[in-house]
Amino acid sequence: MSDHTALQLIAPDVKLGLGVRIFGFVNLYGCEIGDESKIGTFVEIQKGARVGRRCKVSSHTFICEGVTIEDEVFIGHGVTFTNDLLPRATAAGGALQTEADWTCRPTLVKRGASIGSGVTLLCGLTVGESAVIGAGSVVTRDVPDRAVVAGNPARVLRLIA
Fold first, then answer.
1. Which residue would you say has higher pLDDT here, 132 or 91?
2. In the predicted model, is pLDDT for residue 149 greater than 90?
3. What is the distance between the alpha carbons of residues 66 and 149, in angstroms, rounded to a whole number?
4. How far apart, in whole angstroms, are the C-alpha atoms of residue 90 and residue 21?
5. Given the DSSP bridges, would you call strands 67-69 and 50-51 parallel, antiparallel or unpaired?
6. Strand intervals (E) in 43-122
7. In which region does residue 92 sit, left (phi positive, over 0), alpha (psi from -120 to 50) or beta (all else)?
8. How much is the pTM?
9. Residue 161's pLDDT is what?
């Protein structure tokens, strides 16, 4: 299961497939990780998130609640997913927000997609099958299947044949 056991926080409710490799300094809770996937150092995967089979999640990546990553997806270093369109620290009355005060907006990354290092993905979108997102991009809308996108905001550069 693990390559390094030092300073891993893996909650008992995490579902790990066969042959999953997890490196040090990770925080996993309430999530599911498919067979033969690899989770790099300094990765957090929150409750309700799902990582498919044979995925590679590189170091310093944040995968929040509501994110589904299908099989054979590459996630580069320092990728950040979001799940709230209007994040706030406090509710209308001034008290700290609770889970009842916001709506989780799901994101789907389809099979075989590749997300470059330093990418930020806003919530509520779909990254198409075998799509490629260039490093440092900010994804604000759906990415079509087999599209290569880059920039801020990310725009389609071409389609992969």
1. 132
2. yes
3. 23
4. 38
5. parallel
6. 44-45, 50-51, 56-57, 62-63, 67-69, 74-75, 80-81, 107-109, 114-115, 120-121
7. alpha
8. 0.94
9. 87
